[in-house]
Amino acid sequence: MSGHSKWASIKHKKGATDQKRGAVFSKLVRAITVAAREGGGDPKNNAALTTAIEKAKAASMPAENIERAIKRGAGLLEGVNYEEIMYEGYGPSGVAVMVDVLTDNRNRTASDVRNIFSRSGGSLGEIGSVGWMFNKKGVILVPKTAGKTEEEIMEAAIEAGADDVEISEDHYEIVTEPAAFGAVRGYLTEHDIPFDEADLTMIPTTTVKLDEAGARKVLRLLDALNDHDDVQEAFANFDIPDDILEAVAKSL
Description:
Elements: H1 3-18, H2 21-39, H3 47-58, H4 63-73, E1 83-90, E2 96-103, H5 106-119, E3 123-124, E4 134-143, H6 150-160, E5 164-167, E6 171-176, H7 178-190, E7 197-204, E8 208-209, H8 212-226, E9 231-236, E10 238-239, H9 242-251
Parallel strand pairs: 8-10
Antiparallel strand pairs: 1-2, 1-3, 2-9, 4-6, 4-7, 5-6
Helix pairs in contact: 1-9, 2-3, 2-4
């Protein structure tokens, strides 16, 4: 599993108690609204909307909140018009950072994100400054406890149209092109292959290896970015050894 995915997995396990539910719901509502606006309100024909809805359900968001966000995005209800922006910059140790934002005030958010970078020893860059180091991919994590062999997962992934399958200690990480993400996830569901997570993400083409001191600084930056109401997710191209990542996670 990539460094970013490992950190996201650790944060997912401890994050439910670390974040206020209201802030989480606010971000999820934005994601659902924008997905419905851009791809329509039918989850069957909108992979981004399906992903946003699944995240909302996993966070125990009430069904009426989800439906209201879908209707707002589809233009059936009035609401705030959110703009999607991807900020780029450098964190401590020269780590490249991508920040996915949904905002109703571009100037406010740009100022806030710039200040977070500065306070953390990094700097906000221009469009294209680090984006070339990342590829947008779909990633689906199938647990090894799913009752399927490695060969069965490989065959299913190939049949579904995935690009690759990477193997970690606990999961099979199925990687897809964004256009094939919905079809691959649907194939797994239809063939009773459970998965823990399924999302579109930014995968780095090159990584920066960090020691413990560097890891603490970079992960504090990512946490500060992710705590901002307008930030959907922050991605970085770090490589942190498992033992250091686990040790740092306990203290953050």
